[in-house]
Design a protein that fits this description.
five-stranded antiparallel sheet; 734 residues; alpha+beta; nine-stranded antiparallel sheet; single chain; 17 helices; 32 strands
């Protein structure tokens, strides 16, 4: 039986784009390939060059949520494997057998490309006699597996053998792991070891097992062969049993010819769940694709149930060794900057972030007790245990807004999915209520102004410390306390009255004369600011304020924010100006981010001069949010998903596919004057989420439009919301 039209539509990307075009007035531009582009013949998903970047830090990282590696580097990392105690904790360097370059004696032309459709990096070397291709990838489905394939194709008829050298920089040693040889396994070399120091005194040191196909010094195309292919695999695991099982899987996939196809299929499945494409700006389109690709690479497969997710660090799994890229620790960057762009499309991956925090509850409880407070204090820098591993004590002691950042991610997950199981058997309620208890014990009642103060903190703007009433910190504290009360009501849990009391009476600094929010008590207007701080009250925190105050906050902080500060900052200013209807001003600020994008592989640096963390996922997350939540105006609320679309002049069309809400998947097409939505027939991959019937309610006219799976809905561009079709029927699990 042929597939229904809309199922074919979802499975065929080109057909989907064409269908969007056919139901609207203005037609899209279709290249010869399968992807929406910006009037260009080149595929924006493929980053190609004939010259590698001079700084090897900007070579492309390949990762799959468990393993991470920068191509050609002789070290790699594994999620959750750290070495060093406390503040000395860092990702353990693991030697990488795939640190290999292909080379020939004769002159050759070189092409290097990263195909983000498939997550495969390829070096192609061409001479008069042979074309040699080396492909590298972190397997997207089998997370313990990394692959190198070499293909030689003869270019002229000859009876001479052709040899290509495989130049390796691999040595089976690590400064973090004491390795010793283990018996070879089915032709594969095997080393095993443990890290030299546990994260927590008296704790266990992670075990590491590495099995790999031996890399020969060269490969040769025999006289009778027109072409030939060689495959090399490595597996990395925490036990010999797991390593051997993964190596068996790799050998089986090679034998059946399904090694690369299974990897490509897993990437295809991921991209079908989310696509962000636009017409009008080739550089912006390419940047968005790069951001989505590298962020997705930081997460495990949708099918991986065996490996616990180890969180996302600012530089991802390919970075984070001793003394570089924040040691591979997990910060607020994960929950505030990276998480929203993932949660919008992938509820299962979003839940993995929350489950990571749940696994650190014991450490968070210990942190709070050491500070002399109740409840949970999540670490400013986290590894595996949840105990503070920041090498500088002041950040762990004072940058306590991390608690509210964590709970905001939980709150957004509930609003997107209404999956209460995450908060019951998933133990999310322990996180929310533990943080609420911390805020209550951390707040101080000040009789003079009849309000609660939070004293002696460092705000997100790390230029200042030991300040009182950071406006960002107090606001996230207020909202996490309110959410704790709300969740307690849902789960029929007796909430302490202090949660509501502190939430209602906590001080939110505000200057009545200047009509703006000072960053903290005593902040002098015009003093320099490191990064986005107070401007985040409007988004992502959602503090209610008038357009006048929102504008005043933006105008107060934009000129004094360090222009060379961390890359994620300008995205938050851009969102603010889009809220106020000033798309061109927003776009001007968003353009500042491009100086952080290092060509040719779209790898971000933390600072615009190329310094700081590389593969800076935090900056990518902020940039993505500026587009995903700025252009669309998406704001998830308790009972609806608000939207208020606005495009800048240089973007004529914006297509965002796979938005996940209340068990549904939606595809959106925004144009200058109209909006089109298609509700997919297939349900979302939300865990334990009940699919609800949805409708669009337009703000100005009050028009209500039911969303029927497979049937497009088009309306003039205006603000509105997506909500349950019948608000009298509850979609909450009983």
């Amino acid at each position: 039986m042929p597939l229904p039209f809309y199922k074919r539509l979802i499975n065929d990307e080109k057909l989907l784009v064409q269908y969007f075009a056919s139901i609207c007035v203005v037609h899209l531009i279709f290249p010869s390939g399968n992807h929406l582009t910006m009037a260009s013949d080149s595929d924006p998903y493929i980053f190609s060059t004939d010259t590698l970047p001079p700084d090897p830090r900007f070579l492309p990282p390949l990762a799959n949520g468990l393993l991470g590696w920068r191509v050609y580097n002789n070290i790699m990392h594994m999620g959750g494997v750290y070495n060093g105690e406390g503040g000395h904790c860092h990702r353990a360097d693991v030697p990488c057998p795939l640190a290999v370059k292909i080379a020939v004696e004769e002159p050759a032309q070189h092409t290097y490309s990263l195909d983000t459709h498939t997550g495969i990096f390829t070096h192609t070397l061409s001479t008069a006699n042979v074309t040699a291709s080396q492909s590298l990838y972190a397997h997207r489905y089998y997370s313990n597996l990394m692959v190198m394939e070499v293909l030689l194709v003869r270019q002229v008829a000859s009876e001479e053998p052709i040899t290509v050298n495989l130049v390796s920089s691999f040595t089976p040693e690590s400064k973090d792991i004491f390795f010793e040889s283990a018996p070879d396994y089915k032709g594969g070399r095997h080393i095993q070891g443990q890290t030299t120091a546990a994260e927590v005194p008296g704790g266990s040191c992670p075990s590491v097992h590495l099995i790999w196909t031996p890399i020969t010094p060269s490969v040769t195309l025999l006289p009778e062969q027109s072409q030939s292919r060689w495959g090399f695999i490595l597996v990395l695991a925490n036990s010999s049993e797991s390593a051997e099982a993964s190596f068996d899987q790799g050998l089986s996939l090679m034998a059946t010819g399904n090694l690369r196809p299974s990897h490509k299929q897993a990437w295809k499945e991921l991209w079908l769940e989310s696509k962000v494409e636009l017409t009008g700006s080739e550089s912006l389109s390419k940047a968005l694709i790069g951001c989505m690709f590298y962020l997705l690479s930081a997460f495990l497969s949708l099918h991986d149930a065996s490996n616990p997710f180890g969180g996302v660090s600012p530089g991802g799994l390919s970075n984070g060794g001793d003394g570089q890229d924040y040691w591979g620790h997990v910060f607020w960057d994960q929950d505030i900057w990276m998480y929203p762009g993932i949660a919008l499309f992938y509820p299962k991956l979003a839940r993995a972030v929350l489950e990571y925090r749940v696994r650190t509850i014991d450490g968070a409880k210990d942190n709070a007790q050491k500070q002399g407070y109740k409840g949970l204090k999540f670490p400013w820098e986290s590894a595996v245990s949840g105990r503070e591993v920041c090498p500088n004590d002041i950040y762990g002691q004072q940058e306590i807004h991390i608690n509210g950042d964590v709970t905001l991610a939980f709150q957004n997950y509930l609003y997107f999915t209404q999956d209460l199981s995450m908060f019951t058997e998933g133990r999310g309620s322990e996180v929310i209520w533990g943080v609420a208890d911390y805020w209550v014990s951390r707040a101080t009642w000040i009789p003079e102004d009849q309000s609660y103060h939070i004293l002696g903190v460092m705000p997100p703007d790390e230029y200042y410390y030991n300040v009182n009433n950071s406006v960002y910190t107090n606001t996230v504290a207020k909202f996490s306390l309110q959410f704790a009360v709300e969740l307690a009501d849902l789960l029929q849990y007796p909430a302490p009255k202090e949660w509501q009391e502190v939430a209602e009476q906590i001080k939110i600094p505000f200057d009545e004369e200047s009509k703006y929010h000072p960053e903290y008590d005593g902040y002098i207007k015009g003093h320099p600011v490191k990064q986005a701080d107070t401007v985040m009250l409007g988004y992502p925190l959602g503090l209610t304020m008038s357009p006048e105050i929102r504008r005043n906050d933006l105008e107060a902080y934009e000129p004094v924010t360090n222009p060379h500060g961390p890359a994620m900052t300008w995205g938050m200013f851009a969102v603010g100006w889009l809220e106020l209807g000033e798309a061109e001003r927003a776009q001007h600020l968003l353009q500042k981010c491009f100086s952080n994008i290092q060509e040719p592989f779209q790898v971000w640096s933390e600072s615009s001069d190329g310094s700081g963390a590389v593969n800076f996922l935090t900056g990518m997350g902020g940039f993505l949010q500026a587009v995903l939540f700025g252009y669309t105006g998406f704001r998830v609320q308790k009972d609806c998903l608000d939207f208020s679309p606005l495009l800048p002049n240089d973007v004529s069309e914006f297509c965002i596919r796979g938005v996940s809400y209340l068990g549904n998947k939606m595809d959106w097409l925004l144009r200058t004057e109209e909006v089109c939505i298609i509700l997919r027939e297939q349900a979302s991959r939300a865990v334990n989420a009940k699919r609800c019937d949805l409708q669009v309610v337009l703000k100005a006219s009050g028009t209500k439009i039911p969303l029927i799976p497979g049937q497009p809905v088009t309306f003039p561009r205006e603000a509105g919301r997506v909500c349950k079709l019948d608000s009298t029927l509850s979609c909450w699990p009983l």
